Amino acid sequence: MTTIAVLGAGRIGESLLSGLLNTGRPPEELLFTERSPQRAAELTEQYGIEHVDVPSAARRADILVVAVKPQDIEPLLDEMVPVVAPDKLVVSLCAGLPTKVFERRFAEGTPVVRVMPNTPMLVGEAMSAISAGAHAGEAHLELVEEILGSVGRVARVPETQQDAVTALSGSGPAYFFYLVEAMVDAGILLGLPRSLAAELIVQSAVGAAAMLREGEGHPVMMREGVTSPAGTTISGIRELEKHGVRAALIDAIEAARDRSLELGRVHETDE
């Protein structure tokens, strides 16, 4: 029996616990930590999973999934380090934090796997990228793939690409939400009720995503399939290009990558 402890039961942590239960893992094999006693009680009542403190989780679990915000990592590590044995697998879901942030604090040889998930984990449609630290091997990566497969898709990437992944898929849902918000506002401007505008755009987004996932073709070809000569779509595309939307998106993703790098540097120098 492998016991998994989720350290930090926020939205991502709770979603992972729920996904593991939904794929058949018994609650007896799961633990979680949570600073709010009220929320901890609610989660235990809802899922039947035991709430424990950080040292207990670090002692009892075989796999420790760290799901706190990057700025909260040092106090958590202070609690973990005295009791984490080198045979534990540490899985970090902390944006921007390199595996060496953990490796420098734990005993030599402790395997660490870095993960960049995203919020569609809440509906079982996450895109998670994983990278092995210095002491993590194939078996560790396979365990992490199994865990994260309960809440979506998983890809392996070199750790050097994790900041780009953070910017692209970690922050990516927010960009889609931003575009949908703008398109709904446009529908209202054109005289549609908000509820109808939202339904039209959300279902269009779902359908477009399904076509992309099914491999209907390159996005350029798919866009051209909607773009008739002298039609409505090309008139809209012209305006998007005129206002530099493509360039703005590229700049936004690059800025997110740079911020991810900054987060990592802060904790690398926080000795």
From TrEMBL:
One of its GO terms (molecular function) is pyrroline-5-carboxylate reductase activity. NADP(+) binds at A67, V68, K69, P70. It comes from Halopolyspora algeriensis. Its main location: cytoplasm. It catalyses: L-proline + NADP(+) = (S)-1-pyrroline-5-carboxylate + NADPH + 2 H(+); L-proline + NAD(+) = (S)-1-pyrroline-5-carboxylate + NADH + 2 H(+). GO terms for biological process: L-proline biosynthetic process. GO terms for cellular component: cytoplasm. Residues 159-263 form the Pyrroline-5-carboxylate reductase dimerisation domain. Belongs to the pyrroline-5-carboxylate reductase family. InterPro entries: 6-PGluconate_DH-like_C_sf, NAD(P)-bd_dom_sf, P5C_Rdtase_cat_N, P5CR_dimer, Pyrroline-COOH_reductase. Catalyzes the reduction of 1-pyrroline-5-carboxylate (PCA) to L-proline. Its EC number is 1.5.1.2. Pfam families: F420_oxidored, P5CR_dimer. This is Pyrroline-5-carboxylate reductase. It comes from the Bacteria. Keywords: Amino-acid biosynthesis, Cytoplasm, NADP, Oxidoreductase, Proline biosynthesis. It is found in: Cytoplasm. Residues 3-96 form the Pyrroline-5-carboxylate reductase catalytic N-terminal domain. Pathway: Amino-acid biosynthesis; L-proline biosynthesis; L-proline from L-glutamate 5-semialdehyde: step 1/1.
